[in-house]
Design brief:
With 970 residues, the chain is α/β, with parallel strands linked by helices. Helices cover 46% and strands 16% of the residues. Helix 22 (649-658) packs across helix 23 (670-693), helix 24 (704-725) runs parallel beside helix 26 (757-778) and helix 29 (851-865) packs across helix 32 (888-903).
Amino acid sequence: MDWDVIQQKWSKRWDKDRIFETDPEPGKPKFYLTVAYPYPNSPQHIGHGRTYTLTDVYARYKRMKGYNVLFPMAFHYTGTPILAMSKRIAEGDKDLIDTFKKIYKIHPEIIPTLIEPIKIAKYFHEEIKVGMKEIGYSIDWRREFTTIDPQYSAFIHWQFNKLRKKGLIMRGSHPVGWCPKDRNPVGQHDTLGDVEPEIGEYTLIMFKLEKYRLPTATLRPETLFGVTNIWINPEAIYVKANVDGESWIISQEAAEKLQYLSMKITIEKEVKGSDFIGEEVENPLSKTKISILPASFVDPRNGTGVVMSVPAHAPYDYQALKDLGKRQEILQKYKLREGLINSIKIPVIITSVEYSGIPSEQIINKMKIDNQNDPKLEDATSDLYKHEFHLGKMAEGTGKYKGMSISDARDKVKDHIFTAGNGKVIYEILNRPVICRCGTECLVKIFEEQWFINYGESKWKDLARKCIDKIDILPEEIRPEFDYTIGWLKRKACARESGLGTKLPWDKEWIIESLSDSVIYMSYYLISKYVNKYNLSKDQLTENVFDYILLGEGNLEDEARNSSIGIKILQEMREEFEYFYPLDSRHSGRDLVPNHLTFFLFNHSAIFPEVNWPRQIVINGSVLMDGKKMSKSFGNIIPLREAVKTYGADPLRLAILATAELLQDADISLSLVKTFNERIERLYGTIVWALDKRGALDKRELRVEDRWMLSRLQMIIKQSTDALEKLRCREAIHNIIYIADQDVQWYLRRSKVNLDKNRTAIITAVIYEVIQTRIRLLAPFAPFISEEIWELMGNRETISTAVWPKLENSKIDLEAEEGEELIKNLLEDTLKIVRVTNIKPRKVIYYTSSEWKWKVYLEMLQSVDQDSLDMRLLMSSIMQKEEMKRRAKQVSSFTKKLIEEVRTVPLDMRKRRLKIKILNESDILKTATDFLEKELGAEVSIYNETDSYKYDPRDKAVYSKPYRPAIFIE
Ligand SMILES: [Zn+2]
């Protein structure tokens, strides 16, 4: 295939015919889908291709299903990544420049110009756009924009003013993920492995040791009633420090870290953890004294390095206590009183349905955990935690909290500790360690005087939950990740001091960051078409204009006059929005669930009325190359444009989507791409052959194999359509490419016997019909070759706008399917016997079953179908008939022999066979005699076992069964 020629030809044709330029068509159902606009800070590689190709396949499929499909694209310039990239070039970063030269083949003269951020953005913007055209994405390019266009900024101003008016934007201190080395906030794009730092709120509870306070950090303050001891790591360094005027004992690392949380810390003295072992501290709630015990599992970097131990409800604590009791040498080393550990009483302070006695002990026994290093403790902890949180109640011995739900008790205990001055809040990274791209571990910093969007606002959270509850998610299994994110999400810093983008409308010192200016832009594509067409300026796009277009507020005449946008245009803009919104499908990689996609839901729910909330989210996993993650160090990054140039867009698109369903990692290999190339060439060869000889499809002359082929085609239409509806591309491709190919190969093998002109005309007509359908099923995946073949077949319109194949029930022919299956199986069985016996057959004789066997067989199928295969009942029912009674012995032994076989017939096959009733095997096999003779190289005869004239020297005929004729070879 000369892909270059084919691709250019069809790209031009699509452009010329403007088939992807979509305008409202009242009365025609619309389908509006978008995929995250790319950051133009580097070219796209094969890994980027998955989400975009998937979206394009969906767009093309929906278009053929009769929808008015809108698929637009823009470019996200916002933020620091582009600045960072230009800085690295300016600094002469050898690694980066090498990558640009060697992997992305950027001309050496261009590289020095990329020290200007805007030039980088523009260069890669063009590069990505050309690549998207080359790979065949069906985009309406009239709507293109960048996020630093002044008109887009006007739109973002509108968004931010709206949020602020609703009280969702605030200024104040606010925790952010932070790199202490770069002294910068970190988001997902700044970390190794693109991990979003999740910030959690911990409660510090102060235990007293003389004049000092020992703060322990916990997510479960309500368990304070169950504390039996404090853990300290004897090997770690602790400090006595003045923290905001109080005397604290905490780990050295904690003292370092807490400074970032706006605490004033002066270190007075370093001490070893071991110095505190055996000391007693006072529980601030119960005022009881408990011991400080040694624990090597305490990580001084976690929390404060001081840990409260709640053995009844924390499996780690329980196991550590048990382990310590057995370690005499440690007890002696720290001069701990004999019997101390055993004398510790373990109070159970939460009761729940599944647990009696000590819950930790129970789950540890159940999971067969026997030491504190067992990784299963992690699961035990989270299982117990979840169970108790949702189903637990505060138990006896928790005073006024008794009977409360855990979440109520948590809030109340917290209040109590705080009012008494024994508590404080700190923030930690929940999914630590999160590592900055510079190699430093990120921590939490309280950022003063920050602008943030308050995703923690509880009414807003409720709206977002309502929004997610209504939306479809593909695949559904990822829904809990959204619920989880909505749960932990709090404030999100929305502006930075540097980077490209839009300034905060009310505070020009700040630039809105990239995860905040990309949440409702799907609505802007409906405006940008007009901005581009009529050259609308940012001044014309007033707040009132956006209110009118996007919310239907205000008055058309007034807004048209005030903005000097013509009435007709402004009205059209409003109609365009009303027609296309809400968004029908949003596509993205899985990594954007905890940030972008959740923000997208939050913002839509805040700004738009419920009718305009998005309808569906589609998420896909990542891409591996030859089983490995793509990375420079593996040398397996292949730029998308280069791959298209080398292998062709269609084979590449197929390979990207063929190996995995949505959430799985797709594993691409170049050999797979080549395989698709070969398949496409074969398809092309077949159609050229068929076109050349093609005759008319005369229904009266169709044989069983012809009817089989056409019936199989219906199955392929059904399976691929069902799969594509849920974007199960792997399954769809499997049907359209592999299954269909297998069937066509069988059909050709089967039909190319004793071909006369008449037969050839019919076979080619069948093949023509198959390909005409198949090529339309293939079109969303491999648009270029599909167009080429479609045209070759004499179609004037493009396949991109053709109608998706419909299932034709009249062509489903169960008898032909079973008949052809019979021939296939019989041929295989015969060849097997020939191989095993090693005889060269002269004659092959098949004996089909007598009618009474069929009747018994069908009755058995029926009984299994009713799920009541009672042998005695079945026999007595069969034996009621006179013809069965006559041969009772034969019938009984036949039934017994067949019973296991009948049980294993799959449900759909059973149904089909019951519908067909008695299959005329003799007739079917007789039409296939020529074929079987050719395949076996022997004379083939067919008899029914009741034929008196049959040739049956070895008495084989009696072994015949329905669908399994008896075989005799000599
Ligand atoms: Zn860093």
